[in-house]
Design brief:
Two copies of one chain form a homodimer.
Chain A: H1 6-28, H2 38-48, H3 55-66, H4 71-95, E1 100-101, E2 104-105, H5 107-110, H6 113-131, H7 139-164, H8 171-196, H9 201-228, H10 231-234, H11 240-243, H12 249-257, H13 260-270, H14 277-289, H15 292-310, H16 317-331
Chain lengths: 335, 335
């Protein structure tokens, strides 16, 4: 499935590379043969060359094609959203105190917090610069969608951090949070692609819902994979969210189902600083017993079904097929 | 002089207030009667209500009027640049480890670094949202100018931090840095105003140079006021830059003029961790002896003269008068 998007990925990487090379050179013109501002562009190029699946820019291109648009008109918007995504990673890593990202040291560890703040800020600026090169008659619409994305991801991150220290979080709150933090940039990507592809309002609405639903399914699956994934393939430690006491879908669902002493015991265990293998095992066992794992799978299936239904209005069959493949790539991850 | 801009300031504050109120309410819709995301909007409204001279938004409005444009078309761009300016303050304060701003605790002190990072990020998003409401046929031009501003201030801040730890900084480097860090947002402001006011290319070029020159004069004067201002009126401690061992215009000019043992002694004293009143006195005395104070005054006068010359192409005499008043407001600060 991955190979279906190899060409897209190559196109994206090539454009991204030439854009960043040009910007890095430009920044040095401030003084001939200057290394300045090296504290900005060294870490910036480090994070941008760290790989990634390029999920968001691929979605921009697919959404453009789905309505008969030319990839070439959307490529600058595609890399804009990838650059913006990397801004969120750099700043989130500071806030989450993360040591590694994609197997490499995070910027605030390898350099310092100041460098990481500034790299994130610069990435936002650069993302708009690239976006402004998108070829469309409705550049204002594209910019509005993108700006909504910027604002929503910031608010999603704020909610995520607030929920970490709040005792009063329900599944509905969780869904609002992941809609902003995870689903919104996918939605932004597809809306921008659709606008550039000259989709009508109906088309934009459909693909917007499609990508939002895929995004929600994706995040719930991320929570699920934390407890049932194959460690080797998934590349993360099983139970990482449990050890970090994250308010995942599974945790919040368990709280919804349990009551009385069992609920208290579960909350106590989950939120204890205990980080033993045994704690993870006990919690996963409970998740299975009370069918929380099953609930998560049902939710993922429901959002995926909704997403597929949203694709019905797309007449271009090969484009529709590619979007279905895209959902598969995103959701049929190793588990 | 200040009173000439009272009406502008009131208009700006009113629009800013209603925009932020609307956004704060919108953010709460994520959950009915929710206080979320309070970690974002509490500090955001705190910094935005902290006052400030509204220099940049006033310049947007004046530049629009100078070419016959309507203020009403430019007001959303005006508050956009004020919001963006506040983003730079919040993030710079983290990087500079500043405890207070406009007499109040900085966000990263009163809340924490995470809150301050996120508030800055959100402010960028909100600034673009407001900007996209500017009424102009060339919204792309306005957005390009604004995005150049975002990128240049980030790079200016990077250079500023790099120069702090570099032994190899010349006056030319300093000028590149202040052009990016201080002058650029003024330039951005005037260019946006001029575009919205339907200025021709020539007009845009002139007002762009005007504001850049004013910005350079303003920053050099800021350096100068640090050593010659009246403490009460200026509101800062005399010699603050000296105690922070900042590479100001005066310091770099002194290094250019001095040589041999005198130069070594000066560098040694300036960069010593000594923070006595005597150190400040000795350095200010030297600055006077070697005419560094005079050089700074000459530079300010030269940039101001250049700026005034840039205004010659503006035919609207009352608008020109207001821009001259604006330079006065910015430059004839208490000293």
């Amino acid at each position: 499935m991955e190979t279906a998007f190899k060409n897209y990925r190559e196109l994206i990487d090539k454009r991204l590379h030439s854009f960043l090379e040009e910007e890095t050179e430009r920044s040095k013109y401030c003084r001939e043969n200057s290394k300045y501002p090296y504290t900005l562009f060294d870490p910036l190029n480090y994070i941008m060359s760290g790989g990634g699946k390029r999920v968001r820019p691929i979605l921009v291109l697919l959404s453009c094609e789905a309505f008969g648009g030319q990839i070439n008109n959307a490529i600058d918007a595609a890399i804009a959203v990838e650059i913006l995504h990397n801004f969120t990673l750099v700043h989130d890593d500071i806030m989450d105190n993360a040591n590694t990202r994609r197997g490499k040291e995070t910027i605030h560890r390898k350099w310092d917090v100041n460098a990481a703040i500034l790299v994130g800020d610069e990435l936002i600026g650069l993302s708009y610069r690239s976006l402004l090169r998108a070829k469309t008659e409705n550049i204002t619409g594209v910019l509005r969608a993108f700006t909504d994305g910027v604002i929503e991801v910031c608010e999603g991150q704020a909610l995520d951090k607030e929920f970490e220290v709040s005792a009063d979080v329900a599944i509905d709150d969780y869904k609002i949070m992941i809609r902003k933090k995870t689903a919104e940039l996918l939605r932004t990507s597809s809306v921008m692609g659709a606008i550039i592809g000259n989709a009508d309002e109906n088309g934009i609405r459909s693909i917007s819902s499609y990508s939002e639903n895929i995004g929600l399914a994706f995040q719930i699956q991320d929570d699920l994979l934390d407890v049932i994934a194959d460690e080797g393939e998934f590349g993360k430690k099983i139970g990482g969210d449990i050890l970090e006491r994250k308010k995942t879908f599974l945790y919040l669902k368990a709280l919804e189902i349990l009551d009385g002493k069992r609920r208290d015991d579960f909350m106590f265990l989950y939120n204890s600083p205990n980080s033993s293998e045994d704690k993870i095992k006990q919690i996963v066992k409970l998740y299975n017993e009370i069918c929380v794992i099953g609930s998560a799978k049902d939710e993922i299936a429901a959002y995926t079904a909704k997403a597929n239904k949203n694709l019905e209005c797309i007449n271009n069959n090969s484009a529709k097929k590619l979007l279905e493949n895209f959902s598969d790539m995103l959701l049929n991850r190793s588990y």
